[in-house]
Amino acid sequence: MDVRFRWLTPESGHEWRGKGRGRKWTQRLVPLSGAIGSETPGGMWAYTPPPGLFRKFAGLNFANDERREKEIRSFADEYGDIIAQPQEGHVTITDATPWAQTHRKHATMETWCRAIQHMSRAVDLWDGINDPKRHKELRLLFIRIMGAIFYKMTVYKRTLDDLGGERYQRDWDLVPIAMGKDVAAYPARDITWPARRALQVVIQRALTDTETPSHATANLTRELRLVTAPVNLLADMWLTFARVVSGEIEERPCEICHRYIYVGSGPGLQRSDTITCSVACRKKKQRREDEQRTKKPLR
Distance from the CA of 295 to the CA of which of 37, 81, 151, 253 falls in 20 to 30 A? Predict the structure, then answer.
C-alpha cells in the first residue's frame, strides 16, 4: 500500500480553554498560532508521522486526573491536533471574555479521551495476542455463558461534578463476540481466536465512531499510481495500526535508540535487513563494533 500523508502542527503550541459552568463545563484544545482569530505570532510546520506514533498516542494517560491535560497538550504540541489542522474546524462562541472568542468545534477533552481510549484498547489487545506470557491475563477478558462468548471491554466513562471537575471512571461493557452455533469456532483452549474477533470489533467501532472521524481516501497521482490518503492524523494512526495487524508492516525496535522501524516491501518501508532507524544510529552501532574489535583480550 502506498500511503501519502503529511500533517501540520502550530509552532507556538496549544493551550486548554474552558467554557460553561458546572456540569456544562467544556474544555477545548486551542492552537496558539496558525488558527483563525489567533493573535499569537508564529506559523505552522509540516511533518511525516514517525513509526510507532500510534503506540505513543495509545499510551497517553487520559484516566489520570493530574496528568491528563499535560500529556494530551504535550502530544498536540509535538504532533498537532488528531482530527483537524490548525486553520480548520473553528467556531465563534459569544462570550464576554476575549480569549474565548474562537474555539475548535471538535477538539474537546472528551473527544481526545474517547480517541485515546479506542486506540489504547485495540493496541493492548493486539499486544496480548502476540505475547504468550499475557494469554492468562487475556482469558480474564472473555466470558462464556449461556451459549455465548462476551468480551469484557474496559471503558472509562466521563463524569462532571457540580464545580465542573472532569473525571474518567473505570467501568466494563460486555460485548458479544460469538453466539449460538458460532461459539464452536472459538475453542476454549485457544484464547487468541476470540481475542482476534474482539480486536476486529474494537477497530470497527473506532473507525465508525462519528465523534472521532478517521478514514482514508483513494487518490490517483499524475503518474496514474493509486495512493491512499488519510484525512487526518487519527486516520493515519489507525491505518498504520491496521497495516501492522495485517502483517503488511513489521514493527522492529532500533538496536541503538529502540525507536520503532517499519519494515516491509511497500513504499516508505525499510528493507528486511534494517536494524537501525537512522544514519546517526548506524554510525553509533559501527563505532561500538569497531571498539569491540580493537579491545585486547585479558590475560
Answer: 253
